[in-house]
Design brief:
single chain; alpha+beta; 3 helices; 2 strands; about 10% strand; globular
Length: about 100
Amino acid sequence: MQKYTKNYMQSMGFDVGDFIPCEECGAPAVDVHHITPRSLGGSDEPENLIALCRSVNHCHDRAAAGKLSKEYLYSVVWLRMDGNVREGQHLKINSKGEGA
């Protein structure tokens, strides 16, 4: 499992095998996404990480293409960090930190 995936899961209180929702739409998340890429100075800290789906609403692809702005994604993270996480469907994460 990637270090950043562990950081995200620990900060959210998730364990391996838990279900994790996409923070944008509530669909099953399959990726922990860096809002600011590491190559551009982004960190592996929870403040720079967000769980996103790929197949349902294509949130990961929309974020990577800039269709979900960094400002918007950071606002979702700040709501999460204030304890206002939206309920949604969940996805099982395996021991490698991948969607199962």
